[in-house]
Amino acid sequence: MLSSVGPVNRIARSAETHPLTWRLRDDGQAVWLDEYESKDGYSAMKKALKTLAPGEIASQVKDAGLKGRGGAGFPTGVKWGLMPPSDGVTPRYLLCNADEMEPNTWKDRLLMEQMPHLLIEGMIISARALEAQTGYIFLRGEYVDAARNLNRALDEARAKGYIGQNILGTGVNFELYVHTGAGRYICGEETALINSLEGRRANPRSKPPFPAAVGVWGKPTCVNNVETLSNVPAIIGNGVTWFTGIARPGSEDHGTKMMGFSGKVKNPGVWELPFGITAQELFEDYAGGMRDGYTLKAWQPGGAGTGFLLPEHLSAQMYAGGIGKVGTRMGTGLALAVDHTVNMVSLLRNMEEFFARESCGWCTPCRDGLPWSVKLLRALERGEGKDTDIETLLQLVGFLGPGKTFCAHAPGAVEPLGSAIKYFRDEFVAGVAMPAAATPA
User: Which SUPFAM superfamilies match (predicted)?
Assistant: First the structure.
């Protein structure tokens, strides 16, 4: 389900509390230019371009504490600050990472399909802060509806003079295009995205140099996520103090987050909620809890690349540090409920098959280690595993962990595997074949 329906409609959505979704239509149709402008759309862009210097925009975003909403959570203002000062001659680029191939994640799809002008406005303001002249929305190729809606919205914005040369007579130039990718998970890694945009094989690049200095076509480049960029207009329009005051007490992250739950819950969906809300509230008040006849066995807080947690961990607050306290990462904030009928070995085999298939093959631990984990999991699933297979899997979790591979693909792939063995080891042990009975002499 991709619209904010169900329990979320029982609370009032306003520009002050739901900056990303308050303009959404109840019928799930896209908000086009006239309606968007009638709901204060592009007012922040006009303010930014006409009254603020690039450094002032960047400072407000940094002071607001906006962090990346794609999963890594890197401070956006700090990332912007890594761009070298503009010399007024060298081309500079802003790329929107709209690849969104993380299994169980569809938050950016909702924003692009139903609120395309919000992303466009956010990119215009961000480009001004970065003094970038060209932008690309690197979109997952399977998102056909999002591509259509974004291109229509871009046509509307160009016709209004919001994109192009000398925008609104301010002297600011910015061209923006939609680029649909071939559909690879690895393109979510920003340097692999850049390679793909250039027409190259989607392999991650060695860093340094970082994209901020040497990015697309060797020029200074900033890559931000859809949801991240969609927050920028509200920060410029409503101010830093407002943004830092939205989250629940105890949260170290500011603003709101697109969060959701899928699986055998009564009301699967995605909602814009303040950082710091507990997973229990998300699970019960919004997702409605488990369907009748099912009980919650485990859950993942933010996509297939995050570790599994138990029902008792639902008390954790949904922000990076809150989920970190119970042993994993918040990731994309789109949670998965695993019910009592699911065998964890089968679930992990399915996940690791996906991650093994999506490896770019650049480095040995990822290229060889992930297929090895699949082979072992298949044997355990058939009840033909060896008594050493579980320890081998745990060794692979260590060999493919953070800092052991060229990019973060493999560490994300093995995090759910390690947590599944930690909490459900007996299910893995059950897949070990019993030794044949000794034959009498």
Answer: Nqo1 FMN-binding domain-like (SSF142019), Nqo1 middle domain-like (SSF142984), Nqo1C-terminal domain-like (SSF140490)
Strand 256-263 and strand 221-225: the pairing is: unpaired
In tens, the pLDDT along 192-211 reads: 999 999 999 999 999 899 99
Interhelix angle for 226-238 vs 43-51, to 10°? 70
Residue 350 CB coordination number (10 Å): 14
Q: Which stretch of DSSP H or E encloses residue 33?
A: helix 33-38
On whether the pTM is more than 0.90, the answer is yes
Here the contacts of 87-91 (C-beta below 8 Å, separation 24 or greater) are: 90/219, 90/220, 91/133, 91/134, 91/217, 91/219
Q: Per CATH, is 256-339 categorized as 3.10.20.600?
A: yes
Amino acid 71: pLDDT: 79
Which are the contacts of 311, defined by CB distance < 8 A and separation ≥ 6? 296, 297, 298, 299
Contacts for 50-54 with beta carbons within 8 Å, 24 or more apart?
Answer: 50/168, 50/170, 52/128, 52/236, 54/128, 54/129, 54/130, 54/131
Give pLDDT tens digits for 152-202. 999 999 999 999 999 999 999 999 999 998 878 998 899 999 999 999 999
Residue 439 confidence (pLDDT): 45
CA-CA distance, 152 to 383, in Å (whole number)?
53
The tokens for 394 are 């745990």
Strand partners, 136: 95, 177
Q: Are strands 175-180 and 256-263 parallel, antiparallel or unpaired?
A: unpaired
Count Cβ neighbours within 10 Å for each residue of 59-68 and write b for 16 or more, e otherwise: bbbbbbbbbb
Phi, psi of 269 (to 5 degrees): 175, -175
Report phi then psi at 125, rounded to 5.
-65, -45
CA distance 294 to 311: 13
Q: Which stretches of the chain score pLDDT less than 50?
A: 1-10, 438-439
Q: Count of residues for the chain?
A: 441
CATH of the structural domain 11-244, one choice from 3.30.450.20, 3.40.50.11540, 3.30.565.10, 3.30.70.360: 3.40.50.11540
Residue 31 CA neighbour count, 13 Å, CB half: 24
Query: What distances in angstroms separate CA 314 from CA 238, 284, 401, 420, one per listed residue?
Result: 32, 10, 25, 17
Asked if the domains at 11-244 and 344-429 fall in one CATH topology, the answer is no
- Name the residue ranges covered by the structural domains of the chain: 11-244, 256-339, 344-429
